[in-house]
Each structure stands twice: as C-alpha cells, then as structure tokens.
From TrEMBL:
Family classification: Belongs to the GLTP family.
Protein name: Ceramide-1-phosphate transfer protein
Record keywords, A-Z: Cell membrane, Cytoplasm, Endosome, Golgi apparatus, Lipid transport, Lipid-binding, Membrane, Nucleus, Transport
A GO term from the CC aspect: plasma membrane
Reaction(s) this enzyme catalyzes, per UniProt: N-(hexadecanoyl)-sphing-4-enine-1-phosphate(in) = N-(hexadecanoyl)-sphing-4-enine-1-phosphate(out); N-(9Z-octadecenoyl)-sphing-4-enine-1-phosphate(in) = N-(9Z-octadecenoyl)-sphing-4-enine-1-phosphate(out)
BP GO annotations: negative regulation of interleukin-1 beta production
Residue stretches making up the Glycolipid transfer protein domain: 25-173
Membrane topology: Peripheral membrane protein
Organism of this sequence: Electrophorus electricus (Electric eel)
InterPro entries the UniProt entry points to: GLTP_sf, Glycolipid_transfer_prot_dom
Nucleus found in the keyword field: yes
Pfam families with a match to the protein in the record: GLTP
GO molecular function per UniProt: ceramide 1-phosphate binding; ceramide 1-phosphate transfer activity
Length: 211
C-alpha cells in the first residue's frame, strides 16, 4: 500500500516550512507535496492524472531551486520579489514566461486549501463519515472553481474510489485512530498558517489570478 508514507513526515515538513520571520521555504513546501504524492500513488490508477500534474509542478519548482538563480528561490517571499522585479511573471495568457514560479506555486497553493479542508474534516469525522464525501466537499469548496468541467468530472470519479475511513486512517501510518486525530490536529494549524501567509503575500502582489 502506502510504502514509506507516514503522517509524521508530513507534519515535520510543514513544521520546517516557516523561517523565524515567517517566510516559507520552498524546499520544504515542495517536500510536503512529494510526501503527499507518494501517498496518492498508493490509491490506484484513477489518481495518476492528479499525481502527474502535482509532480510536474513540483519539478518546475525544483528546477528553479537548483538553477543559476536558485538563491532567489529560497523562500516564497524571495521568489515573488525576484520574479516580479525581473518581469518573469506572465499576467496574461500570451506572455513569454508561462511557467513562472509564481503561477506554478499558485496552483499548489490552491491545492493546499483543499488539503487543509480535507484534513480538518477527517480530523473531526465520525465512524460513519465517508472519505469520498469529505474529499469532494473539500474539493467543491476550493479547487473545483479553477478546474474545467472535464477535470472536475475525472476528479469526482476518482474520489468515489477512495478507501473508507478506517483504511484511510490505517495508511496514514500514525498509530491508533486517536493518535491520527491528534496528529491531524497538529498538522492543520501549520498548514493553515502556511496557506494564510501565501494568500496574503499573493493578494498584496495581485498574483491570485495568474493564468
Ligand atoms: C486523497 C485524494 C487526493 C485528491 C486530490 C485532490 C485534488 C484534485 C485535483 C484534480 C486535478 C488535477 C489535474 C490537473 C489539473 C491542472 O489543470 C491544475 C491547474 O494547473 P494548470 O497548469 O493546468 O493551470 N492543477 C492543479 O490544480 C494542481 C493540482 C495539484 C493536486 C495535488 C494533490 C496532491 C494530493 C495529495 C494526496 C493527499 C492525501 C491526503 C491525505 C493524506 C494524509 C496526510
């Protein structure tokens, strides 16, 4: 099943994400997504179109991070400053920088809102709650508005095949259900904080609608 996936690793990467002055380290931000993708890969082939897209966005960010301007990609804040100052961000469809760090991270940022909602609803769920319903409610409230009808349909089809709540708690590999719930309680405030800081930064710089 989930191989080496472990909810604690996810909590740890989000803990490492914030610097002392609340800047977000891109390295740990994408490490968190890598962990989650490894989890998603255990869910079956209907999810592979989602994990392919996530991996391609992670790779775009890694390429910036390892490239000659890598030092500017240390944090989300330094990336925004660098890309805007150097006109590396397309604000319309027809520009010459269609895969900027800012627009790529925006896609992951929107997905992080889904994750925050989904984990919060898992945390507060009861034995008869359905993961597929929690997942699609979180999706409807967050990512769906940015996706075409086609992608929405494929995503909802995949959600219907999610394992039930017990199996889901099991693959999180964090001990008893109470322990998983406690760990989710640790993860969600960290994720919300990272999400809120990014949201404010993007709003301030008018980056929330990048094509
Ligand atoms: C547990 C089930 C996982 C469900 C994931 C929900 C997200 C659904 C997203 C479906 C769309 C993906 C297909 C591609 C869409 C792109 O068009 C879109 C926009 O990009 P662009 O370049 O076309 O403008 N891309 C995105 O919106 C990015 C989507 C990234 C999704 C990353 C999901 C990673 C999932 C991780 C599994 C988490 C499991 C959570 C529980 C684990 C316990 C800690």
């Amino acid at each position: 099943m989930a191989g080496s996936f472990n909810l604690q690793n996810v909590v740890d990467t989000y803990k490492s994400c914030l610097s002392e002055n609340k800047e977000i380290y891109i390295k740990y931000y994408i490490a968190g997504w890598r962990e989650l993708v490894s989890f998603m890969n255990s869910l079956g082939s209907l999810f592979s179109f989602i994990s392919k897209d996530a991996v391609s966005k992670i790779q775009i960010m890694e390429t910036f991070l390892m490239g000659e301007n890598g030092a500017h990609y240390l944090t989300v804040q330094s990336m925004v400053k660098f890309e805007l100052n150097n006109k590396l961000v397309d604000f319309t469809q027809s520009g010459s920088h269609p895969e900027s760090g800012c627009r790529t991270l925006l896609r992951l940022h929107r997905a992080l809102r889904w994750l925050q909602l989904f984990l919060e609803s898992l945390r507060t769920s009861t034995e008869d709650s359905k993961t597929s319903i929690m997942c699609s409610e979180a999706y409807n409230e967050s990512l769906a508005q940015y996706h075409s009808w086609f992608i929405q349909t494929a995503a909802r089809l995949a959600f219907r095949t999610l394992p039930g709540r017990d199996a889901f708690f099991e693959v999180m590999n964090a001990g008893s259900q109470q322990q998983v719930v406690a760990m989710l309680g640790e993860a969600t405030p960290l994720i919300s904080e990272v999400h809120q800081i990014t949201e404010d930064l993007y709003a301030k710089n008018k980056l929330l609608e990048l094509p």
